[in-house]
Amino acid sequence: MADHVVYVLECADGSLYTGYTTDLERRVAEHAAGEGAKYTRGRTPVELQYHECYDSKSAAMSREYEIKQLSRRRKERLVGLE
Length: 82
Hints:
Layout: E1 4-10, E2 16-21, H1 24-32, H2 38-41, E3 47-54, H3 57-69, H4 72-79
Antiparallel strand pairs: 1-2, 1-3
Protein name: Putative endonuclease
Domain GIY-YIG: 2-77
Organism: Natronorubrum texcoconense
């Protein structure tokens, strides 16, 4: 796996959260334990729906921004929820 990962979680309330990490397993566990981003703390349990790997932080951060700009419907298509 590449060093830089962009991921999408589905929260318990059905919302989608997009983030960046260098350790996907650890980061998903943090979110699940309520220790991740402020957004996901009150929306557990969370489930990893999608991830993409990149060789550079800048590429991953650019992709994270792109995904965050997508409409809900386009995000659902991306992660296969539609």
